Amino acid sequence: MKTNREIERKAEEVLGRYLKRGNAHRVLNKIIEGEGIKYKEIVVNDSPDFCGAFTTANSGQLYIFINGNISHSGRKNFTVAHELGHYFLEHNKIPEYPSVCSTGVSEMNEGTDFIEREANYFATCLLMPAEKIKKVFINYGRYSNRYFGNHLTVTLANYNAWCSVETKLTKMFGVSKEALKYRLKSLGLVTFRFER
Question: Which CA distances in Å does 137 have to 132, 165, 184?
């Protein structure tokens, strides 16, 4: 098992190698190609919980398979980053997990076992690096007409402020609302006084 800091460092290393500017969701294909991994989207109608898989063929070729039925681009980006997490964290080298098939990939870092939690955390760190998202969040709060400084406590009274932040950052980082909410909460940037 890897620590969160080890996983963060691995994501930073990957970003350092492949991302020159912008955000990681724009270079996921570049990472896949650069690592010599083949990517395929497959339609899986008989297994609706299937999100993706990272596996090695008998020839040694590495593959990432993603469920082609995932229509939300932020969700798809997270699933691709999750499967890259299995690759960069070398989960395929653990004898019990020679191929990793992910069902119900959680953007909230939930998982049935440690390799799924690690891959979820890697995806979060890759797509929304802590320092970058903190800076963007704080600057947005500082320079928008909804000043909230370093922290936003979301209530019914200021829910529109949250919606504004959510819209801007999900688009900027190419993630889903669920992934963004989890990341900002885990970094201590937002607190929700209610759940919607």
Answer: 9, 8, 9
